[in-house]
Amino acid sequence: MQAFIDLAPDVHWDMVQILAWNRHGSVDAGVVLGTFPDGGPFEGRWIRVVLTDGDRITHFEVFDAVDAERARARFAALCAQAEREARATAS
User: Fold this and answer.
1) Structure pTM?
2) Which of 20, 21, 33, 51 could cross-link with 25 by S-S, CB 3.0 to 4.6 Å?
3) Tens digit of pLDDT for each residue in 22-54?
4) Exposure class string for 4-24: b at 16+ Cβ within 10 A, else e
5) Which CATH number fits domain 2-90: 3.40.50.12780, 3.10.450.50, 2.60.40.10, 3.30.930.10?
6) How far apart are CA 76 and CA 39, in angstroms?
7) Where are the chain's structural domains?
8) Helices (H), the chain
9) Phi and psi of 66, rounded to 5°?
């Protein structure tokens, strides 16, 4: 994302749909929009996997828009790992 910001300071993410959500984070589909320095607009459709701890992002991955099932599976695996780590810490 930083590369987009460096290239186009007006870049922004518009969330289109939440694909999965739980106490660990979310999977959402959206569009990245901005303007190239030469004035031309750009648009990219992606899926984000985001894990959080309170108001802090602890994990962030981006998938191609066509990889929704892969993104959901990755989110499930990361959430299962977070659950295992929480149980181990609580013990």
Assistant:
1) 0.82
2) 51
3) 999 999 999 988 888 888 888 999 999 999 999
4) beeebeebebeeeeebbeeeb
5) 3.10.450.50
6) 40
7) 2-90
8) 2-7, 68-90
9) -85, -5
